[in-house]
Amino acid sequence: MKKFFKIVTFSFLIIVLGACCNKKIKEIQILAVNDMHANIDDFPHLAFVVDSLRAIYPDMLLFSAGDNRTGNPYNDTYPGQSNLPMTTMMNRLGFNVGCIGNHEFDDAAKGLIYFTNAADFPIICANADFSRFDSINIKPYVIIENQGVKIAVLGLLETDYNGIPSIKPINAEGINFRDALEVAPEYSFLSNESDVFIALTHIGYRYDTILAKEMPNIDLIIGGHSHDFVEPQLFNGVLYGQAQSKLRFANLFKIKVQNGKIIDKEGVAIDLKKSGISSEYKKMVAEFNNNDYFKTVIGTNVKAMTDKRSIGFFMAESEREIAGADVSFKNQGSVRIDSFPAGDINIGDVYVLEPFHNEMAVCTMNADQIRKFIEISSKMDGGPTHTAGVTYRIRYNSNGELLSVDNVVFDKKIAKQKTFTVALNAFMASTMNPECLDTLRFIGKNDSDLLMEYISKHKIIDFAGKSSYEMIVE
Q: At a CB cut-off of 8 Å and minimum separation 6, what does 457 contact?
């Protein structure tokens, strides 16, 4: 009897051990980028990394957290169809899913229609209602199966400007938006319908951390919009990462799943600029960049501008002069590059500086209205507003909160005036509620037109080290 019991027990252990061994650990790999901003020139670095990793992880997924376009004229004004180069290369490289970013709206509905239908991968966003546009193909979420693991991916978009994304309101006509943090909990059911629940977001680092705190049932948040470099790390048990912008970095996430449960998750940042280059994609980029119009030289920059202050002042001055205004405003977010080299300036450089083609408007303000608008616009756009015709001092506390705008000084030629003609772009005019003494008037030209005219007129540009404001942090 004891012998029989030992045989039965041994057989039972074999069955149990066999069952345990069948519960194979599956590792899901996801490579994620965000805010590529049409940087097609560095896309061959990404392609090299993707191809190299797929040789190791053949089932690796590839995600984008929005803002694929806007920043390179060779993509954004590509003949026949804007955004075709980025869309073509994303398809070729095999992206699996992308969330919508605010700059996907820069070509209004027609741009969304093209991108969401031309992309070979799903585009997602849960907090925007596109139902009035049958041809805009955007879903709130997708469920992907990878190695037998069910992965739910929820898309979220920022709505920081009076309840809409950071876009010109006219580009969002017919589309209704809701706050991402309000909408996200409505999709908590996805954690029960999947093995891995991911939020693919374009709402910025601060809101991502709030989302992690409020929804710990999310396993991974892949962030974008704020251009932060956040190596994969845990927030409230939620794995999170953001890969800065313009294909400087990518984040590789690894999630281990056993029997439908996550047993481990981690990630690592990859410096794309230090990687190799895909010859296949380098050839594609050369073909996309074969446009002589953008290479036409129109002026010369005497000395490199190495910060946004001098670049912003240069852009604001061009708008002030060509618009025939006394004062001009240039919002912080419209200065898209950190430095501008010395040497020839070509038409392509102008479109890199001014990628949005915002219509320009003018109106009349008094000195107090100008000071108030500098304060309002600086608060709304996350940094001091660049100006021309007037300088000022702006104070922040150590937490980055704006304390005051003072020491407002007008140029000598206009200092004795009681009212001033001011120039501002359509984005500022439509989102920041400027208080004017008369009706806001659009002048029939956009910001890139004015910059082009200014450079062509002066030929020699020298703004290095110049600024329109003094910033103090207390």
A: 322
